[in-house]
Each structure stands twice: as structure tokens, then as C-alpha cells.
Write a structure and sequence with these properties.
alpha/beta, Protein-Tyrosine Phosphatase, Chain A, 6 helices, 14% strand, globular
């Protein structure tokens, strides 16, 4: 199970769910320290929630994707993985979607995206992160197209905690 949440909901989510690991996607101005008790199981990726270059901002890049995929490869999947960003809407939903695509290389990208949308109707997957993962995973634009199917244009200030089951599991 992948659990998507906001930074504000992170402490309660950790307490409620006892995850195996945590992925934090925040800009440097908001980056949190490694969480006690999760040393070596807390991946912190510094990036802003942008899809194009912006002065003073950190654009998601391929090393972020590489670090995420390596972290996911070490996740035993016996306990949940928490993925969070500031609002639990964009970077975190993109990272959860990318995680599913990596773990299930033969899965239909649209099915993964629709499952994301069902789990997190507020999802606005960060387009740059999805595009980078699409290239890294050799999905030939299919991840990008699938993410666009579920992308919400209306503003969402904070998503609700969302439970995104691993593909093929309920």
C-alpha cells in the first residue's frame, strides 16, 4: 500500500499506519529533518512543485527519479510506504504513480492512473516528475498521457490522506 498525505497530516499518518518507509518531496525552504526511528528508511527529495524552470526554485530532475526508484526497490512492501509533499496533491501523487509504474512494468498506465484517481480524487501529478519517470522507465509517453487523464485543473489546497493499493491488490 502507498499512502499519500500532506506534510500537516504526516505525524498522524505515521502514528496510524506504522509505515516501513517515508518519501518526502519538499522544497529546501520546507524540508524536514530525517524522522527519528526511520533512519535509512526516509527518503528526502528537495524539489519545488514546478514543471518548468523558475528562478530560485528547484525543478524535479532525473536524479530525483533515480533516487526514488532505488528507494522503492529496497521497500519490502510488507508495511505501507508513505509518500508526502506539502499539500499531498502534486509531487506526492506523481511519486506514488511513478512508484506503481516502476513496481509493475507491464501494467497499463491508464489503469494505474485511474486507480490513483480513485484513491486520490484531488490528484494533480507533477508533470515534470511524471515526464522524467516516463523517460527513465521507457514508457514512451504513456505515463504522461495517463497522468493527464486524471490531472485536476481546479485548485486544491490540501488533499486528504489517500490509500493507493499496489496494482493487482485490494
Amino acid at each position: 500500500m502507498i499512502i499519500i498525505c500532506s506534510l500537516a497530516d504526516l505525524p498522524e499518518t505515521i502514528e496510524d499506519e506504522a509505515p516501513h518507509g517515508i518519501v518526502t518531496l519538499l522544497g529546501p525552504e520546507l524540508m524536514i529533518p530525517e524522522i527519528k526511528g526511520y533512519e535509512g528508511r526516509h527518503l528526502r527529495l528537495e524539489m519545488n512543485d514546478i514543471a518548468d524552470h523558475a528562478p530560485g526554485q528547484i525543478l524535479p530532475h532525473d536524479t530525483h527519479v533515480d533516487e526514488l526508484l532505488a528507494f522503492v526497490d529496497a521497500w519490502p512492501q510488507e508495511a505501507p510506504l508513505i509518500v508526502h509533499c506539502w499539500a499531498g496533491v502534486s509531487r506526492s501523487t506523481a511519486a506514488a504513480f511513478v512508484t506503481q509504474a516502476h513496481l509493475h512494468p507491464r501494467a497499463d498506465e491508464r489503469e494505474l492512473a485511474l486507480a490513483l484517481s480513485t484513491a486520490a480524487p484531488h490528484a494533480r501529478p507533477n508533470r515534470k516528475l511524471v515526464a522524467l519517470a516516463d523517460a527513465t522507465l521507457g514508457r514512451n509517453g504513456r505515463l504522461i498521457e495517463a497522468a493527464e487523464l486524471v490531472y485536476r485543473n481546479e485548485p486544491v489546497f490540501e488533499g486528504k490522506r489517500s490509500y493507493y493499493p499496489l496494482h493487482g491488490k485490494t
